[in-house]
Amino acid sequence: MTAAVAATRVTFAGGAVEGAGTVQRIEASSGGAVVVVDETPFHPVDHTWPDQPGDSGEIRLDGRGVRVVEAVMAALSADGEFAVGADIPVKRGGEGWTWLVGHRLEGDAPEWLVEGARVELAVDEARRARLSRGHTACHLASLALDLALADLWRKEPGTDALGNPDFEGRANQTSRIGEDGAVDEYRLGKSLRRAGFDTETFSATLGDREAAINARLAQWVASGAVSRVVPEGPTIVDRRTWHSELPEGTADILCGGTHAGSLDEFASISVSLDLSDPQLLVMTTTAVAA
User: For a designed S-S bond to 13, which of 70, 135, 159, 229 qualifies (C-beta 3.0 to 4.6 A apart)?
Assistant: First the structure.
């Protein structure tokens, strides 16, 4: 490494899919070289909550290009340990580490890609748009789910971004963002019942709940509401918030991902609820682009 590495500046929060940066580090690995630049439009998959996949695309220089398979989180410790993805031993933002975006290549770095080079970065724009719609749809579906289940609480579980009982926050155990959709899993165990949630009535009225969620989502899509990411700073570890101005009120949710710029980008958003396992609710969200 020829120079000190600073936290990666990112531009994806504003919707950027192209940019330029200076190569700070190239790390060889069996899974493909990892390239770190000082500034990037690429959104990386989070190593602690990997809900949204990292962007793919290209790094280019003087007419030559190399494919980026996926953008990943990387970190450099104070004593020089470089770690990528699941090998990072601390949560994002942990003290004593410099936080970076790594661009994983299909293989070794080509000879023209070297530290200090000024390169162009281009995200796969169509894939980014599909993932962004999937993430926005996921948040909207969770808010509509909370609304549809609000009457099933006998105790106060805390509130979500719209002020409704926070089933999402209490029960969600996994969330996976896909292209134009998402799959969320919710644990309906003893701890949720002790918290005051009526699982029996929920199970008996599952179809009605699903219909209520889909009706609400149709209303929100028809509103064409604002949707955007609001960053608190320029680096990968600065907090970012998803913001949407829905008919029921303004929703702000801490979120590191990318999002649609408006609900006008959707023709529809719908969910299906699966309670085949009475202890596990699976909500599948599907978005259709306008």
Answer: 229
